[in-house]
Amino acid sequence: MPHSNSTDLSALLAFKAAIHNPTGILATSWTPNISFCAWTGIFCSHRRQRVTALRLYNMALQGNISPHLANLSFLSHLDLYNNSLSGSIPDALGHLPRLRWLALHRNQLSGPIPRTIFNSSLLNTISLDYNNLSGSLPTNHSFFLPQLGFFVVESNQLSGAIPSSLGRCLDLQFMSLSTNHFTGTIPVELTNLQKLYVLYLDDNKLSGTIPDSLNNLTKLNELDLSVNFLSGEIPSGLGGLHSLQWLSLENNSVTGPIRASLLNASMISVMDLSFNSLTGPVPVELGRTMPLLTSLYLGGNRLSGGLDFITSLSNCRTLENLHVEHNELDGVLPASIANLSSNLLKFTAHRNHIIGQIPAGFGNLSSLLMVYLMSNALTGTIPTALTKMERLQELALVDNRIHGPIPSELGQLRSLGRLYLDGNLLSGSIPLSVGNISGLQHLSLAANSLSSAIPHSLWSLSSLLELNLSGNSLEGSLPPEVGNLNSMVSMYLSANRLSGIIPSAIGQLQMLQYLDMSHNLFQGPIPQTFGGLISINNLNLSSNDLRGAIPESLADLRYLAGLNLSFNRLEGKIPIGGIFSNLTIQSLKGNAGLCGAPELGFPPCSSNATVSNPRRGQHVLKVALSVSASVLLLVACFSVLLVLLARRRRKKTTASTDPPHLNDHRLISYHELIRATDNFSEANLLGRGSFGSVFKGRLDDGLDVAVKVLNLEMEAASRSFDAECRALRMVRHRNLIKIISTCSNLDFKALVLHYMPNGSLERWLYSHNYCLSLLQRINIMLDVASALEYLHHHHTQVVLHCDLKPSNVLLDEDMNARVGDFGIAKLLLGDSKSMVSASTQGTIGYIAPEYGSTGRVSRSVDVYSYGILLLEIITRKKPTDTMFEGESSLRKWVFEAHPAAVLDIVDNNLLKDEHADPITRHQCLSASLELGLLCSKDSPKDRILLKDVVPRLHKIKKNYLSKQPRA
Question: How far, in Å, CA of 521 to CA of 379, rounded?
């Protein structure tokens, strides 16, 4: 068919000439041998064959928007969103007489929004969010779009005042100006927009008061004014918003009380008034008038009065989050706390003036994950009823006046990861049952009156990262089993009555960064093995009764920045180099026998201290030989006796031996690895990677391991080895692959890792012999997210994985996921938000856009990869699948199908479970894909943080399990 309009054709060709299209869709589709009405993204009217819509979204288009588009005089829809278009928005677009829909969001457009746009009287939708647009909106009466229903310009660089003339757009239903630099006050004229159901003005620089006349917006469903400089009191008019479900005034300077009139907005489910300057009591009828509350945030204010409002919150049967921390609330926690929603996940009331005892009713809240009550004036004992909260992960009762013993029943809280009881009046011994909390990572019992010995069971908590027992009256010695805590990062034992020899096993704790054993009664030498504390940053052994020489190996500890050995009985030469190059007298004083550092006031070492007398040496040697001969004779006789006894005992016992402790530190030689892997035979090959090969092996003690052998012919392999050692040295988490040892010399480098018998996630997704259920996939998503959350948010240094993909997610014998392969991991130092890596690598399909193009890495790089991985787990489609060639991608494919056609894109295996509730399954799949899309957004600033991903996944899992048939 011949072209029906040369003007439209010329305009489209001019547009094509200004565009760079990496996917090639314009080059292959926009050809002169077919009518432009048949071109991809072009829609024409049937009668005149004129262009009415141009829809080229999600196609990775680059370049500028040609002003020649203004010649498409019949154009009503322009959709160019989610590309990489740059430059300015042409003024000429405002002259399109029939334009109704303008969607240019999620590009890289800059400059001001053309004033002509605001004269397009037929415009219904303006979507320009997530660009780099600057300048201001027109403030005069030229802003008149009578049919405008959708106006979104959030996440730009717009400034100036919000135009009052927006109040003339009476059809406006959805408006978001958030995350810009708008200043001035909220125009009262906005209250004329009686069709408005969403109003987002958050994250700007707005000042002044909140207009009371907002109660005119009777259809308003969501109102977000957070993160501004708004002042004054909460207007009573907000209570007239009877359709309001979301209200956020967080992080402003709002003063005055929470008005009773606000409670008339009875449909609110999320109310965030945190971090303001609110005063007065929390209305006691809050929960009765707002029964649909799911989240209530009142923290960071100056609220006072009692806690009676908690009683009324028992009417909120879907309440999940209750946060009242950092206020001036007083009185006791009411017993009615037991009647709160069974869905409650988090309760924080720390830093108030709460008195009385902890109600036993907390035990009824079986879904609770977090309870923070620290820095109050709580008294009484720890109720044993708390042990009913079987899902509890964090319990913090720090800095109160709680007395009595630690209940042994706390050992029943098997999900507990953080237990903070320091700064109380607790007495008695540490219960043996603490050793039952196998996943415990943070245990702080400091500054109490605990006595007796540290229970032996505590040393079996191999997941412990932090142990603080300082400031008690603990006694006894430390056993060698302290070496089992090989995940330990911080250990504080100071100011107790601990005695005996310091176990050499402490030197095995290669993850340990902070060790304080000061102000105790330890005796004997500093173990030579302390030279193995390769991660140590601060070491304090002061005020003990230690003797002997300072191990020279301490000078080789490259990360050691603080050392205090004062007030002991150490003697001999002070080592040279390392930390000892910068020590002051404060670190060594009180050790009269030290020598060799005149600059610190210690005398030079005498020759006797370094060179022995030859004659005296000969005499000593004769005596030593004589004594040694006698001792050897006695030892030989004693050994024969032991052998005879052992043979007799062996006849009475079985031949089995205890399995080796998986977390014991160990040195593994090259020859043992040769034996373990049958000389690295092909039969034991698990896989080959870019930097080497991985073999299955069995060590001499029967432990199965995976041996990762680096290909040293590649320079990058050595960098990979160093990066992985550095990362694994620093991190320990139940969902990370644990390193057992390394083996390294000039010609050979290998990592010895725990063997994962169920192989990789990739094998389970794409092998016909394996199939993962939906619940298994949810658990794997949770495990991986938990590992990344730890790396990003719960470690002293941020660790970035940088190469997350299914082959790097391994499954143990219980199908728990472990993240491995830290070969290109990066560390963010200090307060850095990102860094540029000169060796940008990663895997195609999982690389975040900014990482692949600039080499800039940040937490968001891992979040993007996680999002793609999540989409892949649910759809069973690789991002490199051939179906995604050209302009498509896994994310775009999911984005276009979600939420209407979810069941068309998910893995068919997930739909075969006849026992699963189909509605709940659909909700779970949709929510999981939505989370994957949220994580994999193009702009790093738009992606969610991993610390927010984990609770969302917990909620998805909870909702899914709650509707499944019981066995």
Answer: 32
**Distance from C-alpha of 432 to C-alpha of 438, rounded to nearest angstrom:** 13
What residue ranges in 849-892 does DSSP mark as E strands?
Answer: 856-858
**pLDDT tens by residue, 824-851:** 556 554 444 544 443 445 678 888 887 6
User: Where is 790: in which H helix or E strand?
Assistant: helix 774-793
Q: Which helix (H) or strand (E) holds 861?
A: helix 859-875
Would you call 821 a catalytic residue per the annotation? no
Segment 404-427, tens digit of pLDDT? 999 999 999 999 999 999 999 999
Q: Which of 8, 272, 803, 862 is catalytic?
A: 803
Domain borders along the chain are 666-732, 759-967
Report how far residue 443's alpha carbon sits from residue 434's, in angstroms, rounded to the nearest whole number. 10
- Given a contact cutoff of 8 angstroms between Cβ atoms, the answer to whether 460 and 663 are in contact is no
**In angstroms, rounded to a whole number, what is the distance separating the alpha carbons of residues 195 and 906?**
37
pLDDT given at position 962? 72
Tell me if residue 624 falls in helix, strand or coil. helix
Could you tell me the fold of the domain covering 759-967?
Answer: Transferase(Phosphotransferase); domain 1 (1.10.510)
| Cross-strand bridge partners of residue 159 | 136, 181
Q: What is the pLDDT of residue 518?
A: 95
**What mean pLDDT value characterizes the chain?**
85
47 pLDDT more than 90: no
Sheet of 704-710: strand order equals 685-688, 692-698, 704-710, 749-754, 739-744
On whether the CB atoms of residues 489 and 509 are closer than 8 A, the answer is no
Tokens of 965: 């048939």
Helices (H) and strands (E) in the chain, counts: 16, 58
Q: Taking a C-beta distance cutoff of 8 angstroms, is the pair 398, 423 a contact?
A: yes
Which helix (H) or strand (E) element contains residue 491? Answer: strand 490-492
Q: Which residues contact 946 (CB under 8 A, 6 or more apart)?
A: 785, 788, 789, 792, 793, 859, 862, 863, 866
The conformation of residue 736, written as its DSSP 8-state character, comes to: B
User: What class is the 666-732 domain?
Assistant: alpha beta
**666-732 and 759-967 in the same fold:** no
Per the CB < 8 A criterion, the answer to whether 429 and 450 are in contact is yes
Helix (H, G, I), strand (E, B) or coil at 727: helix
- Residue closest to 220 by CA, chosen among 236, 199, 250, 189: 199
